[in-house]
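note to self: the first set is below, dont mix up w the second
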Amino acid sequence: MARFRFILVLSLALCCFKLVAEPNKQQLRIVALAPHIVENLYAIGAGKYIVGTVDFADYPAAANDIERIGGYYGIQIEKLLALKPDLVLAWKSGNKTDDLARIAKLGIKVAYSNPASIDAVASELRRLGELTHQQQQAEQVAKAFTKQLVAIRQAQQNKEPISVFYQLWPEPMMTVGKNAWINQLLTICGARNVFANSSTDYPRISIENVLVAAPQVIIIPDEKSSKPQPKIDWRQWPALPAVQHNQFVRVNADLLHRFTTRMLDGLSDMCGKIDMSRQQIKASK
């Protein structure tokens, strides 16, 4: 009996030591300031740590239950402080610099997300894994991402170039330049962006610019917006090659415009539709 009590006491002591030495990971509180950060955290099993986020962070469905503390217009610092986060994950290119400076000045740990290339998404997943103690699952997701990306690239190799106009936004009309994220995706699909040589990443253009560029395909992303998007009836300009061959491709902006694992689903879909346009144009000649 004495020996049994000794073992029980020792077991309890070791258990308590473990709890002190290894803090409960569930206590981690994260505010994620971009939809793509939220998606990636859920992808590696760390979505349960998110206590606050921004507008349009809507995937997966569970993300809709997270408290909103701002959006593209800025962050409500008072709301953020009330959530008592251990870590703020910010989007360097998408969050306001002043907001991020204020958060850092308050002594809250801030880590930045800013993947500059498609391949960098895998590195981003691994880094999020380190920050949230989810290294093993993050590594698995990162490897699966890279494998799928390699497969898409191989499938699109040596495709005949086709000129495209990516209508990022209708009014004011905007498109993408050579350094923009979307242009990297178009390049994988064997598409030649007619505005790749623009001086800015997201240039404003006119209908006349599009007529001069004469794209064979016009790609229109279905973008979520609080207001209905204006529609451009490109058939008013029958001289456009895209109009002549009736080549209008619609893509999912939620997939293509976010630096997440689901982006590859959007990429595969877009490449397939561009390839269909390529075949139809060729058949009509």
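second set (the one i keep forgetting abt)
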Amino acid sequence: MDWTAVTVETSNEAVEAVSYILTDSGANGVKIDNAADFANLKPGKYGPYGEIVDPDSLPHRKSGASVTGYFPPKVFIPELMKDIEQRVLQLKQFGLNPEPAKVHSETIDNQDWATVWQRYYHPVRVTSQLTVVPQWENYQPQQAGEKELILDPGMAFGTGTHPTTKLMLQALEIVLRGGESILDVGTGSGVLSIAAKQLGAGDVWAYDIDDVAVKSAQKNIDLNPVAHDVHLGVNNLLDGIHKSVDVVVANILAEIIVPLVPQAMANLKPGGYFLTSGIIKDKFPVVKKAEEDGGFIIDETMRMKDWYGIIAHRPKDE
């Protein structure tokens, strides 16, 4: 029986949220066609026979993005599409612009669709030390000290190239010195936990409210031996978590960061860092105020396009 590809036409800023909606709705894989991705490509072996091709010569989007989820034959698509469209439009309530938010579907034959998106993903240097590498690439580090984050981009819960994820990867690089204990809230693909281990972190606990995301994170962690001891679990923020850690990191929507603030304070050691991202421009003042009102000291604010990140810390005991 044939599979169905459900495609959402959306904006660059909503790509990861739409990817989550499709996967949460039962998609077995997700392909992202984002105009912004081509800005990162350099001439490489993109031709059908492995020949070197200039990315500008490849057919590609000029603006916006589309996210396609692949659904098995057992899924009843007409009802599913209505639900997906509604959830995509609701992203406006979280400060994201999902427009044009058009949803359409097509039947695809039972081909090896699992490799459809591979031509769109190539190694990307995201910080001075960290490079995101798709699992199928045979990548050779370009300089001493460069560290690889090996991911399966088909598991679209944060591939390291979105501004919100880049901000937190940079923040981790700024604050980690080695041996720190970390809570990764809303771990998604597990990329921040993997990066933390590459940067020398000690114990890392990673949580997500979605079981599918946790399974995705586990598969990515299995691709990175350095992260083999990351503790993964399903949990709503830090409900019921009582630890004393050096760093809490969260790349989640701004509205979800606000209730996380007191939980992060309760789980951080004096002087410990609270790293947050996923904050669209309009929501930044709200999150910053919530962190300051919650007792945190803001050390640095970070910005990439319309997205913000915050490095804050719990005051040390007098």
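remember for set 2: The CA atoms of residues 138 and 238 lie 37 Å apart.
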